[in-house]
């Protein structure tokens, strides 16, 4: 199993970024997929999750109405669209397949 994130970077407050996570070695369509983040000195926290099947979603309260998780099963890829970014969104963002496999992480830094 391999999960490879991309799309992180430096963005000013109020800006947008789109993270991608390409999965291989999994039956992607049957997996719920999640995005977590870990800021310096803090524990890793769940940001968003998207179910298999009906694609139901869950968001952590601080990102509701700003972040959108989606998936493209044909490409075995899950996305996290992040709008109206805030400095407190600064963290390493990780993709997780909810079956014990993590990506390597991608840094998101929000700063003016």
Helix and strand layout, with pairings?
Layout (H helix, E strand, L loop, with lengths): L1 E5 L2 E3 L5 E8 L8 E6 L6 E6 L6 E3 L7 E6 L4 E6 L8 E6 L9 E5 L2
What features would you describe in this structure?
With 112 residues, the chain is mainly beta. Helix content is 0%, strand content 48%. It contains no helices and ten strands. The strands form two sheets. The chain has a six-stranded mixed β-sheet with strand order 2-10-9-4-5-6, with no helix packed on it. The model has no long low-confidence stretch (mean pLDDT 95).
Supply database-style keywords.
112 residues, mainly beta, 10 strands
Query: What's the Cα radius of gyration?
Result: 13 Å
The SSE string, one letter per element, is EEEEEEEEEE
Outline type: globular
How are the strands of the biggest sheet laid out side by side? Answer: 2-10-9-4-5-6
**Helix content estimate:** under 10%
Query: Segments where pLDDT lies below 50 for 5+ residues?
Result: none
Helical/strand content category: mainly beta
* Biggest β-sheet description: 6 strands, mixed
Number of strands: 10
Terminal CA distance reads 37 Å
Strand content: over 45%
Number of helices: 0
**How confident overall, as mean pLDDT?**
95
Summarize the structure.
The chain has 112 residues and is an all-beta fold. 0% of the residues lie in helices and 48% in strands. It is globular and about 40 Å long.
